[in-house]
Hints:
Helix content: 55-70%
Distance between the termini: 57 Å
Order of helices and strands: HHHHHHEEHHEEHEEEEHHHHH
Number of helices: 14
Strand order of the largest sheet: 1-2
Largest sheet: 2 strands, antiparallel
Number of strands: 8
Amino acid sequence: MKLPVDIPVCIAIxxxxxxxxxxxxxxxxxxxxxxxxxPEGWDLPSYLSVIIQMAxxxxxAFTLITVLRPQTRLEVPVIFIILGVxxxxxxxxxxxxxxxxxxxxxxxxxxxxxxxxFLAFVDCTSSVAFLPFxxxxxxxxxxxxxxxxxxxxxxxxxxxxxxxxxxxxxQNQSSxxxxxxxxxxxxxxxxxxxxxPVEDFFFFLFTMLVVSFLAFAGLRFHPYFKKGKVxxxxxxxxxxxxxxxxxxxxxxxxxGSDKTVxxGSDKTVxxxxxxxxxxxxxxxxxxxxxxxxxxxxxFLTAWMxxxxxxxxxSIQTYAALPYGQTAYSFALKLSNVANPLACFVSFFIxxxxxxxxxxxxxxxxxxxxFQLTAAAMSPTPxxxxxxxxxxxxxxxxxxxxALFSYAKVAIATILRRQGRRALLWCGGMxxxxxxxxxxxxxxxxxxxxxxxxxxxxxxx
Length: 460
């Protein structure tokens, strides 16, 4: 059976997409080791959360320029900047992440925080730059792109797993009070020795970003990869997508009252030769979607990313750790595997039905609601002291990630058929949802303090 895609093109797109979030994801998974040597301690994640939200000025500026100046094509230079700055920042982190500065009498990790801002700035901007670039490729290549994005979270987790980050055993520990001459025994964590230092981990991130940079350069300039790009496409003279108020329409595509776009050009599409349009119509696009359907898809994009990127990462510890360290570890690691695996499944079973996408999104939301409920009930969530509860929380994490990942690929595939600007708004709504979810959870976790942490080791 002949595959509908070219394997080398798929591999290049996967390697390119890995560079989207691998550096920020890597920074997060390395935090258990980083906080042990920096003055902020476990307050550091709060600083990073604020910095990441400040970095959303990047995608905001990109979107505004694209909307206000639709003839301007920024994807290619911006992507080179994103991958170049990301690689340079991770390389600098390897040498300077422990450097601190005294500010107002207190030591702060200025080097790490400043470089983290640059990482977040370029990664947030990747959400609105990478997808428009993918509009120059055939629809079938949206799945490899999302597989690569999934690997941007999976690869750092696997390397951190081999490094031994966060691995510990619960042991009896004693503390002696010299005033009362009393020895107190408690159960506490004993962390395992790591296999290699933090600096080597940053060198790994740097290497992956260089690989991603080279993969993008190949996709952009090497003639071999033209076979994956759109052909037999013509562009609209307006700046609109393949969307109409009434409903689906057939080719040729009507524009206004008297304009018609005829399909049939055999010109390969690149970001440089679409200066007269922002709407890219795939030759396989035989119908559009209505405005209401378009808005629903964008809402679902914002909603799912608000949960998966903004809300749920903030409460993972509260939701899973009460079930035990093993449950917490397996829930996070297996959910990272579920992301690219669900994207891979969409290679063979990818729905184009808006109803199916809605049902899958609702099912994923129900599982996300269970995670939020478990976190709100921490340290004693449902079935926390049973084997069934351990299995349940692990399965909830896995299936919530899988369902949302699959739905995101399906939505991006549908929007890919509607044109470049549809993918631009898909990326924009991804960041809007993530921002809102992160802000809401920051308030609930750090201001209102709704959630209570479970002890790392429970006393029998």
